[in-house]
Amino acid sequence: MTAYALYLHIPFCRRRCSYCDFNTYTTLGDLQADYVAALAREIELVGARGGRPPVHTLFFGGGTPSLLTLPQVAALLAAARAAFAVDAAAEITMEANPGTVDETYLAGVRALGVNRLSFGVQSALPGELALLGREHDFAAAVAAVDAARAAGFDNLNLDLIYGLPGQTVADWQRTLDAVLPIGVEHISLYCLTIEPGTPLQRALHHGTINAPDPDTAADQYEIACTALAAAGFDHYEISNWARPGRECRHNVVYWRNEPYLGLGAGAHGSAGGYRYQVVRQPRTYIRRMDGDPQPLTADARDSSPVTRHSSLATPFPLSPAVAAHHRVDDDEAMSDTAITQLRLLSEGLDLDGFALRFGRPFDEVYGDTVRQLVGWDLLRRRDGRLLLTDKGRFLSNQVFYRFV
Ligand code: SF4
């Protein structure tokens, strides 16, 4: 039976960060109990319709999942374990914001089975944290890591953002110098994108901030690569570094383009040869899960062959909260697989796996493109795999574009 990565979306935050366009809300806290009950129902329904399939990773994402109370975390994990065969060694991650957690809370979620935490730290500099609208300071981030260690966590990620308006290479180096001695197992780096409709975009429009400089961001990425390698991290994905064996198993599922189930408002999933998105608004989500007990679509129950993708061979029943879905054809699946697997820098694209999954050798589909990119020293072959070169990782978007 297909094993899944399970993502649970928690769409609540105490305050909106200036760059954030995620599906999260700061004024719907009074809905949290109803939302958790609806999410537990969705878990129960999807697991039952799928025949209690195996789950090997579980991820509480948001939003700020650490705003859940301990009984709410317990209820969601109990629902997941009842509805799915959650592996005893499953990686169970919770995203958390510094300032929302203390040792007592973290010991509680650890006792419930959460075994990995991902903290949104973003910067060590007060001015940058203020620009980003973060509600914590760097001392709170350090305190959160200390509390997590005291609570028994040995697998921690920190998120950082570079490419900020006005951020110099020296500023970024100060953040790296402050963060690396903390000694976590995993670091994720995001280059800021100024999204439409965000306070940062309005500030840019009104001229109160300058647009970030892409050349500075490229230099910042390069010094981060050097600093993280010197600190003993493997650069295993374009934006992610881990101590050996501490890669994020949940996210690796996305990058291998393997099946995952996203539940909760606005979550995405890819299963049974379909991609789908759950309705975004929490109130609508709760109403949907309170209402129609019937399976969503005839299309999703379609018993016709769902292509020959071996890992996507089971049509998966969707919940009543799914707002949109489409069947993934071979062209889309092959392109997605090429792009996502090439993001995995140390693993790369598995050429035999590709041929097995799609019934066509990779070079038959993309031979001309690969020859060109190898000729430009952007891709290389190694042991039956195709990988980005050092040059290719800096120009990865140019490489990926050619597989679309
Ligand atoms: S904590 Fe995360 S999800 Fe919440 S507003 Fe900030 S960036 Fe968005």
Order of helices and strands: EHEHEHEHHEHEHHEEHEEEHEHEHHEEHH
List the uncertain runs.
Answer: 293-314
Number of E-type strands? 15
Which ions and ligands are bound to the chains?
iron/sulfur cluster
Please report which band the strand proportion falls in: under 5%, 5-15%, 15-25%, 25-35%, 35-45% or over 45%. 15-25%
Rg estimate, integer Å: 21 Å
Biggest β-sheet description: 9 strands, mixed
Q: Give the rounded overall mean pLDDT.
A: 93
What is the structural class? alpha/beta
**Span from first to last CA?**
30 Å
How would you describe what is shown here?
The longest helix has 18 residues, at 32-49. The chain has helices at residues 32-49, 70-83, 103-112, 126-131, 138-150, 169-179, 199-205, 214-230, 249-255, 282-290, 330-343, 351-358, 362-375, 390-394, 396-401; strands at residues 4-10, 54-62, 85-96, 116-122, 156-162, 186-191, 234-237, 240-242, 260-263, 268-271, 274-278, 322-327, 349-350, 379-382, 385-388. It has 2 domains: 4-254, TIM Barrel (Alpha-Beta Barrel), CATH 3.20.20; 331-401, Arc Repressor Mutant, subunit A. It starts with a strand and ends with a helix. Helix 2 packs parallel to helix 3 and helix 6 packs parallel to helix 8. The chain is of the alpha/beta class and 404 residues long. The protein is globular and about 55 Å long. Residues 293-314 have low confidence and may be disordered. Iron/sulfur cluster binds at residues 13, 16-17, 20, 22, 24, 62-64, 97, 120. Iron/sulfur cluster is lined by residues 13, 16-17, 20, 22, 24, 62-64, 97, 120.
